[in-house]
Amino acid sequence: MENAAAEYSIKGILKQLLTYKSGVFGISLLVLLILISVYTMITIPYSTAIELWRGGENVWIENPRNAQPTWIRYLGKNLPETIKRDSTQAGRVGTIKVLTPIPERNMKLLHISFSFDYEYDDFPSEINIFFTSKYNTSAPLLRIYWIKPSGTKINLMTYIPRSQEERLSLSINPTVSNRLYAYTVNVLGGEPQVPLLVEQAMFAMEDETMNSTLTATPMKGKYELIIEGTLYGEDSDVDAKLIVYGKVYGLAGTDHLRRDLTVALLWGTPIALSFGLTASLTISLLQLLIATISGYYGGKVDSAIQRLTEGYMILPFLPFLILIATFYRLDIWILLLVIIVLSVFGGGVKSTRALVMQIKEYPYIEAAKAYGASSKRIILLYIIPKILPPIVPGLIGSVPGYVFLEAALSLLGLGDPYLPSWGKIIEDSYAGGALYKGHYYWVLEPASMLILTALAFSFLGFALDKIVNPKLREV
Amino acid sequence: MSEDEELLEVENLRKWFELRKGLFSSPLYVKAVDGVSFKLKKGEAISLVGESGSGKTTLGKTILRLYEPTGGTIKIKGRDITHLKSNELMWYRRETALIEQDPYGALPSFFSIHRILEEPLIIHKFGNAEERRKRVREVLEEVRLTPIEDFAPKYPHMLSGGQLQRVAIARALTLRPELVVADEPVSMLDASVRIEILNLLRELQEKRKISFIYITHDLTTTKYFSEKLFIMYAGKIVEIGDMLKVVHNPLHPYTEALLKAIPDPDPRNREILRDVPPGEPPNLVNPPSGCRFHPRCPYKMDICQKEEPPVFEPENGRFVLCWLHAKK
Known about the structure:
Order of helices and strands of chain B: EEEHEEHEHHHHEHEHEEHHHEE
Structural class of chain A: alpha+beta
Number of strands of chain B: 12
Structural class of chain B: alpha/beta
Oligomer: heterodimer
CATH architecture of the largest domain in chain A: Orthogonal Bundle
Number of strands of chain A: 9
Helix content of chain B: 25-40%
Largest sheet of chain B: 8 strands, mixed
Strand content of chain A: 15-25%
Strand order of the largest sheet of chain A: 2-3-8-5-6
CATH class of the largest domain in chain A: Mainly Alpha
Shape of chain A: elongated
Largest interface: A-B, 21 and 30 residues
Distance between the termini of chain A: 22 Å
Number of helices of chain A: 18
Number of helices of chain B: 11
Radius of gyration of chain A: 32 Å
Shape of chain B: globular
Strand order of the largest sheet of chain B: 6-7-8-3-9-10-12-11
Order of helices and strands of chain A: HHHHHEEEEEEEHHEEHHHHHHHHHHH
Strand content of chain B: 15-25%
Helix content of chain A: 40-55%
Number of domains of chain A: 2
CATH superfamily of chain B: P-loop containing nucleotide triphosphate hydrolases
Largest sheet of chain A: 5 strands, antiparallel
Distance between the termini of chain B: 36 Å
């Protein structure tokens, strides 16, 4: 004889879960998400995550803006990766720095050469040179040249660093732009239809395709950037760092602030899991307790709790939550608390109370009263263990709802102001016009993490439901 | 306490359930137990017999104070416990126990047998874990669920109905009560294990000198168990007497009817039509005037409709609520 009671032990449920495909699927997804969370918490501690996410542009200055994930290259064009050359690491591949003092004139001649092979199908997104200069009285005078694989040498500009740390953004420099325009006109033998962008002109094939930004194609081969300069003073020195920003970055790409999305996607996992699980568990267990007290004691206690619940159920939950979150900029855990407080007297109280009303008439409850069990003992040890198994599927199934709620609030700009979460990425991408600009990865990555989490808990919930409600099995 | 001393004294006990309370109308009551008086000696076993709806279960549970009595008094060892609050009742809970009808529902499915038997001991702060284990072993041995090592760690769904009822009996005995109310303890069991359980109950009752109230609708099972019969009808005990005397010479017409209704297993009697009183048990919200049995009584007299019969004692030790015995 198969008895329902046998299936209601925790061990029994777990054992049975593995006999359902949806159970195995849900559990493996959940285990994966938990592993990601643990990995994240260990490798990127909370403070580091906040620093990385809120540290401003300097943290990520060497990353390309709005770069797609690297693996996108396997699906289509060979998009460029970021190329870096640093003169402080002279001697490395493609990096030469020579400093020659001129005797008796208290001057030095500087020669820096950065070279690299460029074999990609698309132009870089941006080109920056970072200068670190050391001088006493007069600033150094630098001349910057660009040599294409065809051998063409272009004098990009003459540059005088004004402070010790300077960034030269070639992409938006008017002098460079003008020089390259002249070069384009020279190649075409006339004015181009649509003038090329700086990084396009620097990398374009020298033919009629330079006529427009739409037709320009990158020239493959060895490029070289040469910085020649004159330095004044005994201990003067100049170092340069060339960064040719690509169009792909890392596992997840970057956002509009050059931030590595991996950080936010990883950190979103423990946040989503803990937020969803805590909200669902706390709300379900509190509702369970309230419902049991209401159903067991009956009378005035019951009436009071039921009327309160009905009042709560009429309250518009989301507008209320938005109101509170707008007035008080809440961090995620306070937000969680507000959600719990707003939901404890929810519909769950009603359905669980109905179960309690039924169970409290069971003979074993009466027997317990007959041997002197207190009401507290009966509620906690005799009724709750009996109703817990049937409500577990609902509890697990409601986790995605709270994960989505957090994302929705973030999307409305009401989420945690510091923590990186999936909802935050979607908010950023929405504000950054991701879909309009074609940055699909920016939206799809957090969205698929959300869906994955929802699937994990939903499948688990379905399987649990089949176990504790055997009637569903035949369907 | 001597053998003959009264353990339980019930005096005019009433338990009315409120049906509904209108805003303006006066409340209606189901008079499930309506003026019951009897005494129970220490170590005495009685059978409380009546059809369903006669209030026998309510009476048993009211005596155990699972229901708050509406009126009357319940005294145990001379102490009035009628209206004590639940925290003052703990000693009474120790002295009394309940065995229920449904062995499948009477045990919490999520506790092991050991835990089920230990619960009353934990609640009454009996000894330490070792002493409790010893007591659990003792009671399991008493109800012959052996080997104990096999049964103690099991869960209720692993046992058969008869075994479950043995566990329920063991649980009733863990606190060594003086009064046990068994509410149809065998009616849901297979016929084959009924007599076994009844004999076990009888044996334990005699061994431990327990006062026993055996509630049943089945007169045939009473002979295995007790020497005294209480017949209940519509919230009142209508006849009290020694088992054999009542069975062979029923004084109340209802008792007579009950005895006639017992099926006869002898195939030679299969053609005999049974003379069973017509009608249904009365509505307890609005019971008939006078004697409650009069609408179904074959010996109905005028007085039966007008006046409720008092307790008559036509023979020594036999009490009956019936006007037929008024003159004797």
